[in-house]
Model the fold of this input.
Amino acid sequence: MGMPDSKALSIGEVINLLRDDFPDVSVSKIRFLESQGLIDPGRSPSGYRQFDPEDISRLRFILQQQRDHFLPLKVIKSKLTLWERGEEASAAGELTSTPLDAVGEPLDRSALLKRSGLTEEELSQLTDVGLVKTIPDSTVFPPEAGIVATEAKRLMEHGLEARHLRSIRLSVDRESDLMIQLVTPLLKSSNAAAKARAKDVLESCSDSVTAMHRALLAVELRQQISS
Done:
């Protein structure tokens, strides 16, 4: 818990301090993070929130995890434990997998464009090739769409077009179908334990496929560079 002192800032001053790096920061967002137990600023004698340097560093870390990795709050909470122990820097290089049941905040079209830097036309192209999809029966995108759109933008800046990226979508579809075959009997069961087992298997398989992708891609690219 932050302790009020002469260096403490009000919530408005904190927003002004962070706004350049985090344009979406607001009073309501900071209050929400406090209500979820991620931050605990001190209070002035009159009851106003006061943020000391440690509070601000903690808030900056949380906002950065949301902006750069689109992590849901419960995952950020677990990472905060490492951060508090000073271990986040050593863990930062590790591949972080998001559990299948971890749900962040859905993104509307405006938020997705803002986060990714895509133009309206580029987002439409990615949608047309199926790389970015809205949640079924809704007009908003899943939180992971933020990662897909941001990375797609980087690839497009290097000269690739949406039609080239369609192969990634097709690859994911094939891998998803393959893994679902492994757990189909479990998914058909009405037993809660069976469904939990299916989720564990899929998460494990997903981690393995991701690791294989990175390794195989590294080998192929290294061979091309050295040939």
Residues 1 and 66 are 22 Å apart (CA to CA). Residues 89-97 have pLDDT under 50 and may be disordered. The chain has two domains: 11-91, 109-226. The longest strand covers residues 42-43.
